[in-house]
Amino acid sequence: MLGLTNVAEMELHTPDGQTLVAWYAMPEPGQPTLFYLHGNAGALLHRVGRVQLYRSQGYGVFLLAYRGFSGSTGTPSETKIVEDALMAFDKLSSFTPADSKIVIYGESLGTGVAIQVAAKRQPAGVVLESPFSSAVDVGAHLYPYLPVYWLLKDRFESITYIGEVKAPLLVLHGERDRIVPPSLARKLFAAAPGPKKAYFIDEATHYTLYEHGAFDKVRSFLDGFKSERTLPRGTIPASCREGCTRQGR
User: SS3 string of the chain?
Assistant: First the structure.
């Protein structure tokens, strides 16, 4: 599919009759699975490079297309997107291999969804790329002469939910981001309970974090969630030298 190997397209059906598109790739043994929530721009097709990068490390990947994006039906709204993401997370949890820990990854607008899902579920970890304290704060930055605090319907008040996120947190942001000011990410990060780590990359913009080393930070974080498969009772590990006992004895 689109040059991606071992990636399947699947459909999820919502309680209100909509059909959501998702891409899924199984993790290699012991590797974590990314529950990926994309930003407002583009579609799943624009994340092919990301999927290839994650798959090159053996990570599992589950990308959900919001309502109205990439063939998913329905009209997007904050309430519906979050409901859909919670349903999709539960679905992923039901078939993810037992030795693969699920890490939620939110990109830009998707960070607002990711934080609410992480606050209501128990992921192993959370990665936030270009996050914000609230969509209202972003709107006020982009449109300082408009009363966005009154006009914005989907507010994505991440600052309200971040205190409920107990999983280890990684924040990535570009110091040259002109869409989401780094000050809003710092505000959110300060409110997070931890454990937490943040990287504000000097040369990166909203769209160039991965061009300035962000993936190395992501990979280091994700590698902390690797797990070892438990061998069946009675097997001898390959590293076991002559004379060692069998497991379970």
Answer: CCCCCCCEEEEEECCCCCEEEEEEECCCCCCCEEEEECCCCCCHHHHHHHHHHHHHCCCEEEEECCCCCCCCCCCCCHHHHHHHHHHHHHHHHHHCCCCCCEEEEEECHHHHHHHHHHHHCCCCEEEEECCCCCHHHHHHHHCCCCCHHHHCCCCCCHHHHHHHCCCCEEEEEECCCCCCCHHHHHHHHHHCCCCEEEEEECCCCCCCHHHHCHHHHHHHHHHHHCCCCCCCCCCCCCCCCCCCCCCCC
Quick one: pLDDT at residue 45? 83
Using one digit for the tens of pLDDT, what is the confidence trace for 7-58?
999 999 999 999 999 999 999 999 999 999 998 866 788 889 999 999 999 9
| Segment 150-178, tens digit of pLDDT | 556 778 999 999 999 999 999 999 999 99
Distance CA 93, CA 87 (A): 10
**Identity of the amino acid at 84:** D
